[in-house]
Amino acid sequence: MPQKPRSRPPGPSGEPLFGNSRQYAKDPFGFLTACEAAYGDVARVDLGPMETYVLTDPNEIERVLVGDHEKFQKPEFQDDALGRLLGDGLLLSEGETWRNQREIANPSFNMSRLSGIAETMSRHATEAVAEWKDGERIDLEIEMARLTVRIIADAMLGIDLSETRVRTIQETLEPLGARFEPDPLRFVTPDWLPTQENRAYEDAVGQLEDVVADIVAERRGTEGHADDDDPPMDLLSALLRAQNRGNQTDEQIRDEVMTMLLAGHDTTALTLTYASYLLSEHRAVERRVHEELDVVLDGPPTFADTRELGYLDKVLQETMRLYPPVYVIFREPTVDVKLGGYRVPAGSAVMCPQWAVHRSPRWWDDPETFDPDRWERGRAADRPRFAHFPFGGGPRACIGRQFSLLEAKLILGVVGQEFRLRYDRDRPFDLRGSLTMHPEGGMPMRVEQRS
Fold this sequence. Notes:
The structure is a single chain. The chain contains 17 helices and 12 strands. With 451 residues, the protein is α+β, with helices and mostly antiparallel strands. A 5-stranded mixed β-sheet has the order 1-2-8-5-3, sandwiched between helices. A 3-stranded antiparallel β-sheet has the order 4-12-9. It has a two-stranded antiparallel sheet with strand order 6-7. The termini are far apart.
């Protein structure tokens, strides 16, 4: 006989009106870690208009994202400002719309195509680091964002972004990011209210829409036909061909291009930023990476080379464990469900925090230690599958996972052949939470030429 679910999980006490939202806004990472340590698999927190359940059991997270995924959807609270930005693109769409868009996008991300665009990625990386000079100080977060936005535009939109467009995109990232930082007052502030933050956000979205419209206009007519011998296989070409068949609107193309331009570059840039920081702080690991690069590479790295960079792959996995760019995933149950022995009602918010799970001593030995060797096959065998889920999981897992990992390996390969990067601040960096996890104040690095 199935056990009756308990009605209410434990959780931290909150303040009148604000609940736990001010605690979360002040330090979302410390708050999530504390909830996992204090309450275990499930905690109930009060973050605003929806009941929120923090889920940190990997097996239950797998149920939400994979086994019972049909009982969950993206939460409605993400439909306001985020919906204004990304619309009905792959990241936010649901049901038949999502299935149709995913079917159109899949061929652009398959491995046979990725093998063909590795050279493009490597070329962009080589051109970027050619401008670095021995001894100069750079903000690596900005440098990596500039590089990855150029790559995603070339590989997935079929266009070489001008310096002006790259600068426009970068200038919009600050007001866009600020709009999604935890803020308890935002729950009671309508999006239509003309606050300074809301105006800056709308201006930023408008500037990006202009860039997207120009890109689409320039590509229209160059997309080829499905029955051509070798039609362009970038995502924008696929979308335009679908529109020619009557299977795509201008608004859908806008939403997918906007999603690809933003989500397609940000997470990879952050992974590269954090990986470079960790290598700077762990010289023995850095030496092993450079030794591997020196053995495998003979010139700019290729797709085939990345198959031989096994230790670099472990470095990337460990980087995403300690500093997952997407540090929390939300889902909303469409029916009452049982999670961790508790009843979770339909319409509530389920939070699956990569940050807390990836750093939990329940699943990881010495979880705060940077140890790429923990990804050796023997050591990884006993961990729950979803103790590590930087790309989500299930049908809604990130479509760009393989693209991102290939891109990161190629870029680190190009950089590591020529340079060492040294963290150039006299204190550790703080973290800033938004849609993704950023280092507060950027990531200052000193460039050193390898001898």
